């Protein structure tokens, strides 16, 4: 079976992401459900940390949180690592709290973000995909100047958003 691909069309260029359902089946199914429902269309990259990550998928262009499905189990023990251009699920303090937000690693972050132990803090972040085309777009987004607001300490000063997210055949 071939791995599915998702095309993220952003206002700064396109990202083609290969997904790994054999390593992260629940995470990939969750991500594709949001893609198929058009959830990511018009969402922003609300967290940009230079040399670390770009994160998005959860807020619309007016900075309103989008409704989500229930959280999914964390598949961070799948053997995939948070290396440059890998795609992983964002989560809260609890290990099984990921819903719609995802991030793309702008550097090799495995030492900090990969599974260490089964505690909430050490469980890590589940990698489920890889940017296979568009790494220059990841870099462009990652180098955006950010402004701190009360709710968004690393919000790009110039809006960066997903125009559309769709399966790529």
TrEMBL record:
* Domain PPIase cyclophilin-type residue range list: 9-167
Q: What is its EC number?
A: 5.2.1.8
Q: Which UniProt keywords apply?
A: Isomerase, Rotamase
Q: Which GO terms describe its molecular function?
A: peptidyl-prolyl cis-trans isomerase activity
Q: Which InterPro entries match?
A: Cyclophilin-like_dom_sf, Cyclophilin-type_PPIase, Cyclophilin-type_PPIase_CS, Cyclophilin-type_PPIase_dom, E_coli_cyclophilin_A-like
Keyword Isomerase in the entry? The reply is: yes
Chain residue ranges for the region called Disordered: 63-83
Q: Which domain of life is it from?
A: Bacteria
Reactions that this protein is recorded to catalyse? [protein]-peptidylproline (omega=180) = [protein]-peptidylproline (omega=0)
Q: What Pfam families is this protein classified in?
A: Pro_isomerase
Could you give a single Gene Ontology term from the biological process aspect? protein folding
Functional note: PPIases accelerate the folding of proteins. It catalyzes the cis-trans isomerization of proline imidic peptide bonds in oligopeptides.
Q: Which family does it belong to?
A: Belongs to the cyclophilin-type PPIase family.
Q: What name goes with this protein? A: Peptidyl-prolyl cis-trans isomerase
Q: Which organism is it from?
A: Desulfonatronum thiosulfatophilum
């Amino acid at each position: 079976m071939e791995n599915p691909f998702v095309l993220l069309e952003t206002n700064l260029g396109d990202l083609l992401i290969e997904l790994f359902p054999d390593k992260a089946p629940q995470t990939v199914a969750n991500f594709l459900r949001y893609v198929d429902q058009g959830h990511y269309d018009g969402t922003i990259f609300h967290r940009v940390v230079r040399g670390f990550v770009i994160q998005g998928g959860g807020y619309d262009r007016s900075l309103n949180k989008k409704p989500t499905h229930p959280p999914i189990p964390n598949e961070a023990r799948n053997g995939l690592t948070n290396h440059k251009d890998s795609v992983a699920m964002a989560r809260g303090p609890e290990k099984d709290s990921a819903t719609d937000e995802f991030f793309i690693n702008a550097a090799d972050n495995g030492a900090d973000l990969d599974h260490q132990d089964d505690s909430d803090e050490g469980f890590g972040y589940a990698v489920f995909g890889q940017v296979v085309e568009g790494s220059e777009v990841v870099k462009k987004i990652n180098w955006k100047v950010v402004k701190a607001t009360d709710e968004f300490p690393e919000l790009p000063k110039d809006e960066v958003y997903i125009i559309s997210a769709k399966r790529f055949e």
